[in-house]
Specification:
The protein has 16 helices and no strands. The protein has helices at 2-6, 9-17, 20-27, 33-57, 59-62, 72-75, 80-102, 104-125, 132-136, 138-152, 157-180, 182-188, 193-196, 199-217, 228-253, 263-283. It is flat and about 50 Å long. Helices cover 77% and strands 0% of the residues.
């Protein structure tokens, strides 16, 4: 179980939620089940490898943060050498699995996402800039492209739009959590935005990104990829998101702190939002 924990399976669940529905959209129906399973397996192994390598690199600060103090490397259940070997093995296996059973475009996209997360985000951005999660989040947007390419072996505007939705979703998804655990990040010198800026500044950025995200999510229908059902879900879910984002900003402006800030409401809703949106992506082709 320690090696499974290295892959951060709960995070990977969210990544797969954005992969499979895009396969339905690309197919305009039910994609081949074998292809779905192979894509999910490849995606799990690739993301798992990236997460294991992330834990290897961050093992020094993980030991000092309450949120990460029970990770396998910190507790000694897995040695650094084992973790490194495990992460590299998953990276190689996932790339070959994608290339040999799905297609090489998907393989290179998955490998690119892994390298971006490990090198650009973890090694370069995370400890150097408050914009770390903005640009580092690109890796988490890649499953959308992989889902599309696994079916079509090509790219189109639909996955690009959904990629941008995830790009603008990531900061307002993660910043509320960072607001709650900012003392952890401050203790280890990681300059997450809530560490270096006031709650009012962070909340303003959350609202800005939220409006752009919702706006981008509505582009799929005029581009001809989705119909009324997706649009309805995007409008309703997006409207609720904006309500929560503005409510958080109102509390931040009033200098509410502690539990009364309720920053985790938006964090939890962000997961529900992206789940609803991508379920709508999968269902919409059957209602057109």
């Amino acid at each position: 179980m320690a090696f499974v924990a290295l892959t951060k399976p709960r995070i990977i669940e969210l990544l797969l939620i954005t992969t499979v529905p895009v396969m339905f959209l690309a197919q305009q129906g039910v994609p081949d089940l074998k292809l779905v399973l192979l894509t999910c397996l490849g995606g799990y192994l690739s993301a798992g490898g990236a997460n294991a390598l992330n834990m290897y690199i961050d093992r020094d600060i993980d030991a000092l943060m309450d949120r990460t103090s029970q990770r396998p490397l910190v507790t000694g259940m897995v040695s650094p050498r084992e973790c490194l070997a495990f992460g590299i093995t998953l990276a190689v296996v996932s790339t070959l699995l994608f290339g040999l059973t799905v297609n090489w475009l998907s393989a290179w996209l998955a490998l690119g996402a892994l390298l971006f997360y490990v090198v650009v985000y973890t090694m370069i951005l995370k400890r150097r800039t408050s914009q770390n999660i903005v640009w580092g989040g690109i890796a988490g947007c890649m499953p959308v492209l992989i889902g599309w390419s696994s079916v079509t072996n090509s790219m189109s505007w639909a996955p690009v739009v959904l990629f941008m939705v995830m790009f603008f979703w990531t900061p307002p998804h993660y910043w509320p959590l960072s607001m709650k655990v900012k003392d952890d990040y401050a203790r280890v010198g990681v300059p997450m935005l809530p560490v270096v800026a006031s709650n009012k500044v962070v909340a303003r950025q959350i609202v800005l990104y939220s409006w752009v995200m919702v706006g981008v999510s509505l582009l799929l229908t005029p581009l001809g990829y989705t119909g009324w059902f997706y649009t309805l879900v995007a409008v309703v879910a997006g409207g609720w998101w904006l309500w929560e984002a503005h409510a958080l900003q109102t509390r931040a402006k009033a200098e509410v702190t502690g539990a009364k800030l309720k920053e985790m409401r938006l964090f939890h809703w962000s997961i529900t939002y992206v789940s609803l949106l991508f379920v709508a992506v999968a269902v919409d082709p059957f209602l057109r």
